[in-house]
Amino acid sequence: MNYMSKGDMRNYISELKQLSITEEMVNETNNKLLKKMYSDLKMKSKPNLGKTFISVVNTFKYMREGRLECNKCNFKAINMRSMESHKKSKIHIARENGDDIIKCGGCGKEFGKQDINEHYLNSHKCASKSSKVKKQQTLLLEERRVEQELITWNQLVKKIKEQGAKKLSPTEKCWYNNKYYKFMGGGQTKIKDGIRVKTKITVRFD
To answer: CA angle at residue 139 from 150 to 177, to 5 degrees?
Structure first.
């Protein structure tokens, strides 16, 4: 299988030389992983060579200068383990995926668009610092409450259909009856087996 793409046609070895990283210097490190990555760049026989190139540069820089840098997050690590941990973080993944990055008005931390709402919901400290965050938190909590009500209603309706209303607990019957008109609309009802049901309209022809 040919893994090469247009992006792989770059002369990575030449680019490394421009960064003062030669094969001889790589071999002198006696780092097996670094040497393997350099070999992959020479053969152009592996996928994701662009990422391999970045890894070679970062690893070599760390071994020479004692630090690694993430060019997407302006993050600096003192060892490979710390950098690998950072690459698994939500903010790094968000940037890798090209997501919109939003800064919290309470703590100033940055989050991906998919993660900021979860932060708003769980951070009461940030809500107390920013009225904008507080407003967003209130809206999200209301959305969550409405979603949970719908889930509970559907669960009770399913239980009634499969097991009958008599199987509902007193608490479940009370909740069902209180929410009946919200989900079922208006109309005449009666209580049957402890729950509210619509009254059938009988048309008489005398």
So the answer is: 30
Distance between the two ends of the chain, CA-based, in angstroms?
84
Question: Is 56 within 8 Å of 37 (Cβ atoms)?
Answer: yes
Which residues, 6 or more positions from 97, have their beta carbon under 8 angstroms from its beta carbon? 112
Asked if 158 and 176 touch (Cβ cutoff 8 Å), the reply is no
- The answer to whether 202 and 188 are in contact (CB under 8 A) is no
pLDDT digit string, tens, across residues 35-86: 888 888 887 767 788 888 888 888 887 777 666 778 788 787 766 777 888 8
